[in-house]
């Protein structure tokens, strides 16, 4: 393991028995787990290369219990790591040896469905797919759909600003959340937004969405639900090269066509997914696009023809349009199962999450091919192609001495390439520990200090999810210092408080 975490506080470790006893008073019954073997299920998230047992695991049932846990930990300088379903691919839910792991899985109820206002109020432990299941009987659904939607929780989606195959047209989590209830590190319960479409004042709702558990613990979410489209059809389009498929993606968007979803897979991912799901993917192509159009039937029929024409002009050799909802679902089932499918052909893999301008897709694909040869590791590519969110899966074997290190270095170079072409380090998986030490590739020291000032405003002691996101964590007192030059403060006319 090459990624380091903060050294545990020995004084906190020495107080473990008292901390566990205090947690049992706050959360009675079976809500506290402190036996080593029983805590192992929580020692990692979906970035399984990194593992760490927590100090203690706490599973509260009520908001009052969450508030009491946080208030106790703040008063006693104990770190807290919030956790949902543990599907994070960036190590965002990795526990700390001297920290309480606060698991929200028991917050799993749909509290209210309001079809008139097209929203639902749910607890953070409700799964992403569970929201759609709660409203589909009335012809509605929740648009963001990560591949892990059957397992990932909406609270985790908030933390990482998750997306999915339909985020191109309908947006990420941040575009589909109307309100939040969260608890501060001091134990104060705060509400942001609600069923209304907009809120006054600063966009704290947008700030909390994607904050990776560093600012507060979410205990309730109000999400936007959408009416299912009249028609939805998908087309599988095969290409001789990944570069041609990438060019077709850019051309489709350039024509003003915004599909409901547009995904890309290369040959290794195509074969793995087809062997796993039997979705009907062509096996004689180097790259596959799955393009879904939705809306009124006449519009969908017209756009399907336009997409096929654009694809053919960019070298497509095959095109197959779904003829039923069942067949369309099979097309997507293969894509959504790509990650576990690749797990069948490699002992281990790292999933990257860089995002680039669409026009740079051919260049980045060529760059990844060179990096694959340099590091002597295979890569299977699965992309949210429409919005440029790349998910290269680097295949390695952790039992071999240097392969994890080479995989990490390979992944870091992919992310550096994304930034180099004008992209960003993460599209939906978050920074966590995986990309933490790459933040200076994208942000200056001043940028990072300003971000940490926001962290200090919410968490002055840096107790919430420490060791994540920021490569170097400054004390709040340091960040609060004002530079005085020759006795003059900046902007002397401004009032000071």
From TrEMBL:
Cofactor dependence is on: FAD
What are this entry's molecular-function GO terms? FAD binding; oxidoreductase activity
Question: Which keywords are on file for this protein?
Answer: FAD, Flavoprotein, Oxidoreductase
Q: Coiled coil located at which positions?
A: none
Q: Which InterPro entries match?
A: FAD-bd_oxidored_4_C, FAD-bd_PCMH, FAD-bd_PCMH-like_sf, FAD-bd_PCMH_sub2, FAD-linked_Oxase-like_C, FAD-linked_OxidoTrans_Type4, Oxid_FAD_bind_N, Vanillyl_alc_oxidase_C-sub2
Which Gene3D superfamilies has this protein been placed in? 3.30.465.10, 3.30.70.2740, Vanillyl-alcohol Oxidase, Chain A, domain 4
Q: Does the keyword Oxidoreductase apply?
A: yes
Q: Where is the FAD-binding PCMH-type domain?
A: 50-228
Q: Does the keyword Cell division apply?
A: no
Protein name as catalogued: FAD-binding protein
Which lineage?
A: Bacteria, Pseudomonadati, Pseudomonadota, Alphaproteobacteria, Hyphomicrobiales
């Amino acid at each position: 393991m090459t990624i380091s975490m903060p050294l545990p506080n020995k004084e906190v470790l020495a107080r473990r028995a008292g901390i566990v006893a205090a947690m049992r008073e706050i959360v009675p019954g079976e809500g506290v787990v402190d036996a080593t073997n029983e805590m192992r299920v929580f020692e990692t998230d979906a970035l399984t290369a990194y593992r760490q047992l927590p100090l203690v695991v706490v599973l509260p049932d009520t908001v009052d219990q969450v508030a009491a846990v946080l208030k106790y930990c703040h008063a006693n300088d104990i770190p807290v790591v919030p956790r949902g379903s543990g599907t994070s691919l960036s190590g965002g839910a990795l526990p700390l040896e001297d920290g309480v792991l606060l698991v929200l899985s028991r917050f799993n109820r749909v509290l209210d469905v309001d079809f008139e206002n097209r929203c639902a109020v749910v607890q953070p432990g409700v799964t992403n797919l569970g929201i759609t299941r709660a409203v589909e009987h009335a012809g509605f659904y929740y648009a963001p759909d990560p591949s892990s939607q059957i397992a990932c929780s909406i609270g985790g989606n908030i933390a990482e600003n998750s997306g999915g195959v339909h985020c191109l047209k309908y947006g990420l989590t941040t575009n589909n959340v109307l309100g939040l209830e969260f608890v501060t590190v001091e134990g104060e319960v705060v509400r942001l937004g609600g069923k209304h479409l907009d809120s006054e004042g600063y966009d704290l709702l947008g700030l909390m969405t994607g904050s990776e558990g560093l600012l507060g613990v979410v205990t309730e979410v109000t999400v936007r639900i959408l009416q299912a489209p009249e028609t939805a059809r998908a087309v599988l389009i095969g290409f001789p090269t990944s570069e041609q498929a990438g060019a077709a993606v850019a051309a489709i968007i350039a024509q003003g066509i915004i599909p409901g979803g547009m995904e890309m897979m290369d040959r290794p991912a195509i074969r793995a997914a087809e062997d796993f799901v039997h979705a009907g993917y062509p096996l004689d192509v180097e790259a596959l696009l799955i393009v879904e159009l939705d809306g009124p039937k006449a519009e969908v029929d017209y756009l399907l023809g336009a997409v096929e024409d654009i694809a053919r002009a960019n070298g497509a050799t095959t095109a197959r349009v779904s003829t039923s909802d069942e067949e369309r679902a099979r097309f997507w089932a293969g894509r959504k199962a790509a990650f576990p499918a690749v797990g069948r052909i490699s002992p281990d893999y790292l999933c990257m999450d860089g995002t680039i301008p669409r026009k740079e897709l051919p260049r980045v694909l060529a760059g990844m091919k060179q990096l694959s040869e340099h590091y002597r590791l295979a890569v299977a590519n699965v992309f949210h192609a429409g919005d440029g969110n790349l998910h290269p899966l680097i295949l390695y074997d952790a039992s071999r001495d240097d392969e994890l290190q080479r995989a990490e270095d390979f992944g870091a170079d992919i992310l550096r390439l994304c930034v180099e072409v004008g992209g960003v380090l993460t599209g939906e998986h978050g920074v966590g520990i995986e990309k933490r030490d790459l933040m200076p590739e994208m942000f200056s020291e001043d940028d990072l200090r300003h971000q940490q000032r926001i962290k200090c405003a919410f968490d002055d002691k840096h107790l919430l999810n420490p060791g994540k996101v920021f490569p170097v964590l400054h004390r709040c007192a340091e960040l609060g210092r004002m530079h005085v030059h020759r006795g003059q403060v900046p902007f002397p006319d401004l009032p000071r408080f």
